[in-house]
Amino acid sequence: MDADPPLQLRVFNLNCWAIRYLSKLRQERIGLIGDTLGQEGFDLALLQEVWSERDYCELKQKLTACYPYSHYFKSGVIGSGLCVFSRYPILDTFLYQYSLNGYPYMLQHGDWFCGKAVGLLIIKICGIIFHVYVTHLHAEYCRDKDAYLPHRVVQAWELAQFIQHTSKGADVVLLGGDLNMHPGDVGIRLLRGWTGLRDSFADTERFEGCEDGCTLVPANCFINKEELQPFPLGIRIDYVLYKGLSRFVVKCDSLVTTTGTAPGKSIPYSDHEAVIATLCVKPREEAKGSSGSAVEPELVDVVNEARTEVRVGLHTAERQRYSNGRMAILALLLLLLQAAMGLSSLVGWDSPQPFPKFSFSLLSLLATVVLLLSMVLYVFHTIEVKMLQGTEEQMRLALQALQDKLSSM
Amino acid sequence: MDADPPLQLRVFNLNCWAIRYLSKLRQERIGLIGDTLGQEGFDLALLQEVWSERDYCELKQKLTACYPYSHYFKSGVIGSGLCVFSRYPILDTFLYQYSLNGYPYMLQHGDWFCGKAVGLLIIKICGIIFHVYVTHLHAEYCRDKDAYLPHRVVQAWELAQFIQHTSKGADVVLLGGDLNMHPGDVGIRLLRGWTGLRDSFADTERFEGCEDGCTLVPANCFINKEELQPFPLGIRIDYVLYKGLSRFVVKCDSLVTTTGTAPGKSIPYSDHEAVIATLCVKPREEAKGSSGSAVEPELVDVVNEARTEVRVGLHTAERQRYSNGRMAILALLLLLLQAAMGLSSLVGWDSPQPFPKFSFSLLSLLATVVLLLSMVLYVFHTIEVKMLQGTEEQMRLALQALQDKLSSM
């Protein structure tokens, strides 16, 4: 093996922002993405937000010669939006849906309907087993008052755990996606600390693209400049992360991002910038076992910080469950009262109905709708509470194992 | 290693049927289960249907001396019901919720509310890494016309895939649970064929208990005899499955089931019989690699059979989605018509309201409720369709990989 030349792998990652009827210039952009993937001949293209399967099929048809293997992960109401085009055979796939993913009633955000998930593909390239993960976490709509932070932290934790538990048979682990987290955010630190994944931007030998590796930049014409005001350079939320296991080491030779437009074109591929990483996979020279599995003491703090966020989320979820339960009981009482009044006036116990019939019926309509909705929401928030409690407990167990490991070192 | 004596492991598996307010003699039975676990000192106790966390806490408190390590998996509205008591430290846990699990409107069955899942625990015993899986699949309410068969097949497939993808780092894989499938059912054949897990009942050297290893038997006083009429001996739906990986072989030295009552008592532990397996783990003598990973040609037929079931489910789900969509549109049209009539009579275009106001309002109440419910169900069945399509596609890919493997053998 040592005599083999290193394997070079070019990986393209992009959040395509392809929502039918809503995303601007969708068809042109999908065409442009297809053209670029075809011309550039990457080894792997990891795409997010390809919400319409028709767009996926269009890309698949166009790229069949250059990327004979591809996979679209289905989940949620709309589809996960995740798909992968590969030059090498996909041996197996597996999908893990995050247990928490926003709220169905937040229609204007819509993340719940997407069934956010992480997709795993097992790909063999020149005898090396790659576990390729593609994902898209819950969006951040307001950084100062981020109601979805606990859900995103749970997703980051589940992503980290999913990678750890499913990558034991891999030679190389590769994760691409829109993580909706800044590089210093607790979720990213948790993910990187727990899995040992390396950040291609931090580790690359050559970088070309937006300053600080940003992938949401004001230069992009689809970006709402006001939202990026606190970050004049933009933000970095799209990542290519990797690690070599057992017999292999991985390095990032170069990293390129687009800079507001597609190269040589007047429009961008998407509202996100594409990230193109050139990775180099080499057999490990040192003895087996030195794959960097040493535990960093800072990880304890990171897991504790994440656990605190989960606890905050738990507190909110419990409050929401309580108020939905109270609302359901009130609506039920109102309905019962109305039923009693209606019945008593029907059997003639009472003088004629004290309220006009129309308002009376309108009120019962309202009470029924409120009762139904509060019941559904009560169930929903109960599930949320359970999942947050479960995650908190898992993190507690993980912390304990971590501390045992550290004290035995 | 070869000089080490074989490791003997006693595993207790039971579906506890502990539903608060509904299950008969719940408290007595939980007490009895706790006593037995305490007296017998098994190495592992895998329990299902411990729906109430209070029951789990009661058991935990009672068993803390004998089983210092335990875990309860939280999910769904009620909790997954899955918990494990262990004599050995639990290093890590992970939960995978099945993507399909019945219907929320089937309140009388209630499986949807339980968030059926598979829990993974990583346990190290005498230096051997055990991946212990505990699960409970969707119940079968009517064998002749089993509306949940496609969901159960999807669950069996996800269980098999979850085990395959998460067990690469294990020395021994152990699965215990109520699979709600007879030994010859397609889901069991798929699970066993895909993972290579061995059935403790089929492989044991010594068996003692109900004929054919049945775990739902007419002798149990909680069993509805009529439901078991087609199976005079009972049915076997609770399993302990295992396999040794890489350096280890596992054998089942003995298997015992209870026979309608708890030993020496007048009542049973549950409506299911307990399964107690004594496993023997030994270092493998042959060269590494001969861990029985050969592909059986029959597996192709099994995956095809499972895929057909998924397709049947897909057809049904599409039909249900269609009828819910149609119902929602009809309800919306009715509401719009009523709004138009109401408005026109308000602005005085029309002669006085042709319908009595009360019936008019009642009708709009009904239309609103129908609209809301059909919309929710439309969304629900759309998710179901997506997941069935996704599973079908995954099975197609798996079949292809299987056929490639077979043709290269």
Fold and architecture overview:
The structure is a homodimer of 409-residue chains. In chain A, helix 3 packs parallel to helix 4 and helix 3 (149-166) crosses helix 6. The mean pLDDT of chain A is 91. In chain A, a hairpin with a 2-residue loop joins strand 6 and strand 7. Chain A is globular and about 95 Å long. Chain A is built from 7 helices and 13 strands. Chain A has a 7-stranded mixed beta sheet with strand order 3-4-2-1-13-12-10. In chain A, strands 5-6-7-8-11-9 form a 6-stranded mixed beta sheet. The first copy, chain A, is α+β, with helices and mostly antiparallel strands and 409 residues long. Chain A has helices spanning 26-40, 53-63, 149-166, 186-195, 200-203, 298-346, 357-407; strands at 7-18, 44-50, 69-72, 83-86, 90-97, 117-125, 128-136, 172-178, 198-199, 206-208, 238-244, 248-257, 275-283. At the A-B interface, strand 5, helix 3 and helix 7 of A face strand 5, helix 3 and helix 7 of B. Chains A, B: Its EC number is 3.1.4.12. Chains A, B: Its cofactor is Mg(2+). Chains A, B: One of its GO terms (cellular component) is membrane.
